[in-house]
Write a structure and sequence with these properties.
This protein is α+β, with helices and mostly antiparallel strands and 291 residues long. The protein is built from six helices and 17 strands.
């Protein structure tokens, strides 16, 4: 059997970038000590979630990938510990051009490449279009020492097309670095409904594609936002193997059986029965009768 141990770091952040980087470095060490072979960090782990406001000063948080100091630091850490790292960061690509980007680093410390977030939200408290240019690298799969990892980021979670294409490119697991939470003014029933929808859509990606899902969210209160934590791992048929608490930090290592994908795809042969000849309309914005 092919098995891989995946570590999740669900943490709160502070306003000091260097303190966050040191905190996450220490937690990566802890997870490696717990047996993790792959460690997934939450979205934009090096800072507070700055997209809750449109502020030009926040662009100073960005840095080049992989040349920047944060990527270089985690490359050295991955090599030292022998772990694969999935690191979500604010990328400065050029003057005035920025992305929400995840770097993937192999267990020998080599930089395997980056995925740039494709779907960029613009909602109250999530003003990401002010900061991020949509990704232009397409959907990516990274062949690491332990497995082939497909990376998607936060708002990408809600789009079945993104998960499908990434799985079709050979991903053996889908990982989702995330920053999402509850507005403190919301009703408790709204909070519960939102979290359940968030988990359900991602579990459905596991079911539809026959691959495990690893979703790592941040926790802690930032301004009027309570990040809802609740990071979780599913097997290749969407069964929740682990779920973190909502309001507390959490470190966890989950062992995944990659051979399960073949079992579930044979018994639920969605890939076999896809009617690819009928899917052309999916590329339209909306299907209507324009006159």
């Amino acid at each position: 059997m092919r098995k891989v141990k995946v570590g999740l770091a669900q943490l709160s952040c502070v306003g000091d970038k260097e303190k966050n980087i040191e905190k996450f470095s220490e937690k990566v060490r802890e997870l490696a000590g717990m047996g993790a072979q792959v460690v997934v960090l939450q979205e934009l782990f090096a800072s507070l979630y700055f997209c809750d406001e449109e502020r030009y000063e926040n662009f100073k948080l960005a840095e080049a990938i992989p040349e920047g100091p944060t990527t270089q630091k985690f490359m050295a850490l991955a090599k030292e510990l022998g772990v694969v790292l999935v690191c979500s960061m604010f990328e400065k690509r050029a003057e005035g051009l920025y992305h929400n980007t995840t770097a993937v680093i192999d267990a020998d410390g080599s930089y395997l490449g980056k995925y740039r977030k494709m779907h960029i939200p613009d909602d109250p408290g999530y003003y990401e279009k002010f900061y991020f240019t949509p990704g232009d690298l397409g959907y990516k799969v990274f062949e690491t020492k332990y497995c082939k990892i497909g990376v998607l980021i936060c708002w990408d979670q809600w789009y079945p097309e993104a998960a499908r294409i990434t799985a079709m490119k050979g991903a053996e697991m889908l990982v989702f670095p995330t920053a999402i939470g509850w507005d403190e003014r919301q009703r408790e029933e709204d909070n519960r409904e939102q979290y359940e929808a968030w988990q359900t859509i991602q579990r459905s990606h596991a079911v539809a594609n026959g691959v495990p899902v690893v979703s790592v969210n941040r926790t802690g209160k930032e301004g009027g936002m309570q990040f809802w934590g609740g990071s979780f791992v599913t097997n290749a048929f969407g069964r929740v193997l682990y779920q973190a608490p909502h309001l507390e930090e959490a470190l966890h290592v989950e062992e995944l059986d990659l051979d399960e994908s073949d079992h579930y795809r044979r018994h639920w042969p969605y890939f076999r029965d896809r009617r690819i000849d009928s899917y052309g309309p999916i590329t339209k914005r909306f299907i209507d009768e324009e006159k």
